[in-house]
Amino acid sequence: MFSKLRDAFKKFVDTTSSLFTSKEKLRESVEEFKLELVSRDVAFEAAEDIAKKLVEMIEEKTIRDKKQLVKALREILLNYFNEAGSVNIDELVKNKKPFIIMFMGVNGVGKTTTIAKVAVYFRDKGHRPLMVAADTFRAAAQEQLKKHSERTQIPVFMGKYGADPASVAYDSIQYAYSRGLDIVLVDTAGRMHTDVDLVNELRKVARVIKPDLKLLVVDALTGNDAIDQAKFFHEAVGLDGFIVTKFDAYEEGGVPISLIYVVKKPILFIGTGQDYRDLKPFNPLEYLDKVLPIEN
Ligand SMILES: Nc1nc2c(ncn2[C@@H]2O[C@H](COP(=O)(O)OP(=O)(O)OP(=O)(O)O)[C@@H](O)[C@H]2O)c(=O)[nH]1
Ligand SMILES: [Mg+2]
After folding, report:
1. Which residues line ligand 1 (CB under 6 A)?
2. pTM tops 0.85, yes or no
C-alpha cells in the first residue's frame, strides 16, 4: 500500500544530506521532489506547500539532518489532517434518529458497495440502518442495492424507476421513522460529475432531506481525477467528508493528502476490499506511518 509515495519521500530524505550546505542543490532536489509528489497523486497545491515549508525550515536551519527532516514532514502533513477536522460518526449517530447520510460520487467509484458496507458497519454496532436507492435514473442502480439487501438482510427502500429522487429520499425517511430504523443511507445517482442536471438533482435531494452528513465516495485509483471530483462536489453541493475506496489496490498513495488539503474535510472510512467488512475508519496517524520513512 502506498509504496510509491513512500519511495518518493524516502528518496527525497536520502538525497538531502548534501542539501544542508548547498542552496543550489536544495532547489534542484526540491523541484524534483515536488514533481514526484504530484505523480503520486499529491495535489499540486499541496506539493508546493510542502516543498515551500521544507525549504524555509532548511534555510532557517530548523532542519539540520534527516531525522529532523522526516519529523518536519510528519508535522506538516499532520497539520493538514488536523485542519481538515474530524467526524466522530459513532457518536453522531447516537444523538439523532434517524441519522441521515447522503452519499455522492461518480459512476463506478464503489458507492453502492460502500453504502452496503456502512450499513453492515452500523448493524454490527447494534443499529438498524436503512439503505435507500434514490438513483431512479438507472434501473440497475436499484437492482444493485436490492442485491446487497438480500445478501446482508438489511432493509432497502426503492423508488419507482423515473420517480423524483428527492421525493423517494423524503419518503424513505418517513418509512424509517415508522419502522424505528435509526440510520438512513441514501444512494444517489452517479453519472459524470460535470452534469448540470445531476447537480440540480443532488441539491434538491439535499434540500428536501437535510442530511446530517454529505459524504463523497471517491476511488483512490482515479488519482488526480478524485481531486477534481472532490472540488466539484464540494462547490456544487457541499461536503462533510470522504470515503476513499480501493485502498487495497492503491500504490501511488497521495489521494488522502490531496482530498484533505484541497477541501479541508476529513476522510471517515477507507474501502479495503470487496467484502462487506472491508471498510475501516481512516486513521491519519496510521496512514502517515505507512507513507513516511522511519525517523532514525
Ligand atoms: N478492491 C476493491 N474493490 C471495491 C472497493 N469498493 C468497491 N469495489 C468494487 O468496485 C466495483 C464497483 O462498485 P459499485 O459499488 O457497483 O460502484 P458504484 O459507484 O455504485 O457504481 P455504479 O452505480 O455502477 O456507478 C465493484 O466490483 C466493487 O466490488 C474496495 O474498497 N476495494
Ligand atoms: Mg451504484
Report:
1. 105, 107-113, 141, 144, 190, 245-246, 248-249, 271-274, 278
2. yes
The closest-lying atom of ligand 1 relative to the alpha carbon of residue 141 is 23
Rounded distance, CA 252 to CA 272, Å?
A: 15
State how far the Cα of 157 lies from the Cα of 131, in Å rounded to an integer.
Answer: 6
Q: What residue ranges define each of the domains in the chain, with the CATH number in brackets? A: 3-83 (1.20.120), 89-282 (3.40.50.300)
Q: What is the DSSP secondary-structure string of the chain?
A: --HHHHHHHHHHHHTTTTTTT-HHHHHHHHHHHHHHHHHTT--HHHHHHHHHHHHHHHHTTS--SHHHHHHHHHHHHHHHHHHT----HHHHHHHSSSEEEEEE--TTSSHHHHHHHHHHHHHHTT--EEEEE---S-HHHHHHHHHHHHHHT--EEEPPTTS-HHHHHHHHHHHHHHHT--EEEEE---S-TT-HHHHHHHHHHHHHH--SEEEEEEEGGGTHHHHHHHHHHHHHT--SEEEEE-GGG--S--HHHHHHHHH---EEEEE-SSSTT-EEE--HHHHHHHHSPP--
Dist. CA 116–CA 129, nearest whole Å: 10
Tens of pLDDT, residue by residue over 12-49, are 988 876 667 688 888 888 999 999 999 999 999 999 99
Q: Which residue lies with its CA nearest to atom 14 of ligand 1? A: 110
Q: For residue 61, what is its C-alpha cell? A: 536551519
Q: Looking at ligand 1, which residue's alpha carbon is closest to its atom 30?
A: 246
Compute the CA torsion angle 222, 226, 5, 18 (nearest 10 deg): 130
Instruction: Please name every residue paired with 101 in a beta bridge, in sequence order, or none if there are none.
Output: 185, 213
Q: What are the tens digits of pLDDT across the range 181-204?
A: 999 999 998 866 567 788 899 999
